[in-house]
Amino acid sequence: RDRLAGAVRIATISHEDSAAFDAGAFQALHSYLAAQFPRVDSQLRRETVGTHSLLYTWPGIDSSLKPILLMGHLDVVPVEPGTETKWQEKPFSGRIADGFIWGRGAIDNKLTVLGTLEAVEMLLNEGFRPARTVYLAYGHDEEVGGTRGAREIAALLKSRGAELEMGLDEGGVISDGVFPGISAPIALVGIAEKGYVSVELSTGATGGHSSIPPRQSAIGILSAAIARLEQNPMPARLEGPTRQLFERIGPRFPVGQRAVFANLWLTRPLVIRKLEDSPTTNAMVRTTTAVTIFE
Description:
Radius of gyration: 24 Å
Distance between the termini: 42 Å
Structural class: alpha/beta
Shape: globular
Number of strands: 9
Strand order of the largest sheet: 1-2-6-3-7
């Protein structure tokens, strides 16, 4: 607990503007981890990849077994300027209070980094040696795409001929109440990640005085375009991992809903319409469109 709180206090922020990158914060976190987990630091091979990402290698006893990869990331998203006073606790306080550790990274994703390091440190202390090789990979730029961190680590492992038995990342959540009719918690195991594309819409208009406005202003033109985007979403699909999810949990629904999911060949349109009602489940059945910044 205290070690995670200490890591949260180090503001390892990823910025879209690379000029704002604070290398010193990441170096401070590297030093902190080395000091807090001395056995990991001394007994595992530690490499710095892509300037500030970390890759630890814990050799296994049996070289014929494929290695596993445990992942996390060291970076966090910025704090929006002007919102600092609105936080219940300071964003990098690392304060332990009311049963929580407060601050950026406490969940996303220093929790995973510190959790795996705690486990490995404990096992090393007990003299444990893994049967297969274990890699610990912690990227430094996941929040801005991972091109300098995770991508570089993947390329390095590939160049060494590493073929993994399993990779474990931060993944999804254990949901409770997301699917009406199922009282038991459901673990959502992520096996892929959506990509994204950013599109900028812009327009110009002749200037003038608000007392004699044009028929349609630049704001009106952009607003109409955005409204059309939101009114015409990408097509919905119930296939692949999403369909497999409902086929797996279908038998746990009450009888009426169970029949629906047991006959998706017939009820698919009905199920899709229902899933579209919630932002959470809508994102499971289509490529989403999100308008995020308006100027």
